[in-house]
UniProtKB/TrEMBL annotation:
InterPro entries: ELMO_dom, ELMO_domain-containing. It comes from Aegotheles bennettii. It comes from the Eukaryota. This is ELMD3 protein. It holds the Pfam family ELMO_CED12. Keywords: Membrane, Transmembrane, Transmembrane helix. The chain crosses the membrane at residues 57-84. PANTHER family: ELMO DOMAIN-CONTAINING PROTEIN 3, ENGULFMENT AND CELL MOTILITY. Residues 8-146 form the ELMO domain.
Length: 159
Protein backbone atom coordinates (compact mmCIF):
# COMPACT_ATOMS: atom_id res chain seq x y z
CA UNK A 1 0.00 0.00 0.00
CA UNK A 2 1.04 3.61 -0.44
CA UNK A 3 3.42 4.58 2.35
CA UNK A 4 3.99 8.28 3.13
CA UNK A 5 7.36 7.38 4.66
CA UNK A 6 8.57 5.63 1.50
CA UNK A 7 10.51 8.15 -0.62
CA UNK A 8 9.88 6.22 -3.86
CA UNK A 9 6.11 6.33 -3.30
CA UNK A 10 6.21 10.08 -2.71
CA UNK A 11 8.35 10.60 -5.82
CA UNK A 12 5.85 8.58 -7.84
CA UNK A 13 2.98 10.77 -6.62
CA UNK A 14 4.92 13.91 -7.50
CA UNK A 15 5.68 12.53 -10.97
CA UNK A 16 2.01 11.74 -11.49
CA UNK A 17 1.03 15.25 -10.44
CA UNK A 18 3.61 16.90 -12.70
CA UNK A 19 2.69 14.72 -15.68
CA UNK A 20 -1.05 15.32 -15.30
CA UNK A 21 -0.71 19.06 -14.79
CA UNK A 22 2.38 19.57 -16.96
CA UNK A 23 3.80 21.51 -14.03
CA UNK A 24 7.50 21.74 -13.33
CA UNK A 25 6.77 22.06 -9.62
CA UNK A 26 5.68 19.44 -7.11
CA UNK A 27 2.72 19.78 -4.81
CA UNK A 28 1.71 19.14 -1.20
CA UNK A 29 0.89 15.54 -0.30
CA UNK A 30 -2.71 16.40 0.66
CA UNK A 31 -5.12 19.00 -0.67
CA UNK A 32 -7.85 19.92 -3.10
CA UNK A 33 -5.40 19.85 -6.02
CA UNK A 34 -5.68 16.03 -5.99
CA UNK A 35 -9.48 16.13 -6.06
CA UNK A 36 -9.37 18.58 -8.97
CA UNK A 37 -7.45 15.94 -10.90
CA UNK A 38 -10.17 13.38 -10.18
CA UNK A 39 -8.69 11.40 -7.31
CA UNK A 40 -10.73 10.35 -4.30
CA UNK A 41 -11.58 12.99 -1.74
CA UNK A 42 -9.26 13.21 1.23
CA UNK A 43 -6.66 10.66 0.15
CA UNK A 44 -4.11 12.99 -1.42
CA UNK A 45 -3.42 11.06 -4.59
CA UNK A 46 -3.40 7.65 -2.96
CA UNK A 47 -6.94 6.71 -3.98
CA UNK A 48 -5.80 5.50 -7.37
CA UNK A 49 -3.49 2.84 -5.94
CA UNK A 50 -4.96 1.81 -2.59
CA UNK A 51 -4.49 -1.92 -2.10
CA UNK A 52 -2.31 -2.36 -5.18
CA UNK A 53 1.12 -3.91 -5.08
CA UNK A 54 3.52 -1.09 -6.03
CA UNK A 55 5.79 -3.33 -8.11
CA UNK A 56 2.86 -4.66 -10.12
CA UNK A 57 0.66 -1.63 -10.55
CA UNK A 58 2.86 1.47 -10.61
CA UNK A 59 4.87 0.69 -13.74
CA UNK A 60 2.03 0.25 -16.28
CA UNK A 61 0.25 3.25 -14.76
CA UNK A 62 3.31 5.47 -14.93
CA UNK A 63 3.81 4.52 -18.56
CA UNK A 64 0.22 5.52 -19.31
CA UNK A 65 0.64 8.81 -17.51
CA UNK A 66 3.59 9.65 -19.70
CA UNK A 67 1.32 9.49 -22.74
CA UNK A 68 -0.30 12.77 -23.61
CA UNK A 69 -4.07 13.18 -23.42
CA UNK A 70 -4.65 9.91 -21.61
CA UNK A 71 -7.94 9.88 -19.63
CA UNK A 72 -6.45 8.16 -16.58
CA UNK A 73 -9.16 8.63 -13.96
CA UNK A 74 -12.03 7.67 -16.25
CA UNK A 75 -10.22 4.59 -17.48
CA UNK A 76 -9.30 3.58 -13.92
CA UNK A 77 -12.96 3.66 -12.88
CA UNK A 78 -14.01 1.67 -15.93
CA UNK A 79 -11.28 -0.93 -15.48
CA UNK A 80 -12.38 -1.32 -11.85
CA UNK A 81 -15.90 -1.98 -13.13
CA UNK A 82 -14.62 -4.50 -15.69
CA UNK A 83 -12.57 -6.44 -13.11
CA UNK A 84 -15.45 -6.53 -10.62
CA UNK A 85 -17.83 -7.75 -13.34
CA UNK A 86 -15.40 -10.52 -14.25
CA UNK A 87 -15.37 -11.58 -10.60
CA UNK A 88 -19.16 -11.42 -10.24
CA UNK A 89 -19.63 -13.44 -13.42
CA UNK A 90 -17.26 -16.08 -12.00
CA UNK A 91 -14.72 -15.61 -14.80
CA UNK A 92 -11.91 -15.66 -12.22
CA UNK A 93 -13.08 -18.63 -10.15
CA UNK A 94 -10.50 -21.09 -11.47
CA UNK A 95 -7.58 -18.73 -10.93
CA UNK A 96 -8.80 -17.69 -7.47
CA UNK A 97 -9.45 -21.29 -6.42
CA UNK A 98 -6.11 -22.50 -7.74
CA UNK A 99 -4.24 -19.75 -5.89
CA UNK A 100 -6.65 -19.79 -2.93
CA UNK A 101 -6.83 -15.98 -2.90
CA UNK A 102 -9.11 -13.35 -4.37
CA UNK A 103 -7.80 -9.83 -3.70
CA UNK A 104 -4.30 -10.44 -5.15
CA UNK A 105 -5.89 -11.95 -8.26
CA UNK A 106 -8.15 -8.91 -8.64
CA UNK A 107 -5.21 -6.53 -8.18
CA UNK A 108 -3.17 -8.39 -10.76
CA UNK A 109 -6.04 -8.51 -13.26
CA UNK A 110 -6.53 -4.77 -12.73
CA UNK A 111 -2.83 -4.13 -13.44
CA UNK A 112 -2.86 -6.57 -16.36
CA UNK A 113 -5.86 -4.83 -17.90
CA UNK A 114 -4.12 -1.47 -17.53
CA UNK A 115 -1.02 -2.96 -19.16
CA UNK A 116 -3.15 -4.21 -22.07
CA UNK A 117 -4.68 -0.74 -22.31
CA UNK A 118 -1.21 0.78 -22.48
CA UNK A 119 -0.11 -1.61 -25.23
CA UNK A 120 -3.20 -0.88 -27.31
CA UNK A 121 -3.23 2.87 -26.60
CA UNK A 122 0.38 3.43 -27.55
CA UNK A 123 0.79 0.70 -30.17
CA UNK A 124 -2.32 1.66 -32.12
CA UNK A 125 -1.99 5.42 -31.49
CA UNK A 126 -5.37 5.61 -29.77
CA UNK A 127 -7.00 8.84 -28.67
CA UNK A 128 -9.79 9.77 -26.28
CA UNK A 129 -12.23 9.22 -29.15
CA UNK A 130 -11.23 5.53 -29.15
CA UNK A 131 -11.92 5.02 -25.43
CA UNK A 132 -15.39 3.44 -25.79
CA UNK A 133 -14.48 0.66 -28.23
CA UNK A 134 -11.20 0.14 -26.40
CA UNK A 135 -13.04 -0.42 -23.12
CA UNK A 136 -15.25 -3.01 -24.82
CA UNK A 137 -12.15 -4.82 -26.03
CA UNK A 138 -10.60 -4.71 -22.55
CA UNK A 139 -13.83 -6.01 -21.02
CA UNK A 140 -13.90 -8.89 -23.48
CA UNK A 141 -10.27 -9.77 -22.71
CA UNK A 142 -10.78 -9.59 -18.94
CA UNK A 143 -13.83 -11.85 -19.10
CA UNK A 144 -12.82 -14.30 -21.84
CA UNK A 145 -9.03 -14.42 -21.44
CA UNK A 146 -8.12 -13.49 -17.84
CA UNK A 147 -5.32 -16.07 -17.68
CA UNK A 148 -3.76 -14.63 -20.83
CA UNK A 149 -3.88 -11.10 -19.36
CA UNK A 150 -2.31 -12.32 -16.11
CA UNK A 151 0.46 -14.11 -18.02
CA UNK A 152 1.23 -10.97 -20.01
CA UNK A 153 1.54 -9.01 -16.76
CA UNK A 154 3.82 -11.67 -15.30
CA UNK A 155 6.02 -11.53 -18.40
CA UNK A 156 6.12 -7.73 -18.24
CA UNK A 157 7.06 -7.65 -14.55
CA UNK A 158 9.77 -10.29 -15.01
CA UNK A 159 11.42 -8.07 -17.65
Amino acid sequence: ALDDQEIVHMRILQTIYRQLTRSKLGCPRYGEHWEELGFQEGVGGSGWCRGAEPGVFFFPVLMLLLLQNFPFCIMAVNITRVVLQALREERLSRVCNRRQEVIPVLNELYAATFLRLRVLWKGQHKTVADAGPLLKELESSAKKKPKQLLKSLEAFVSR
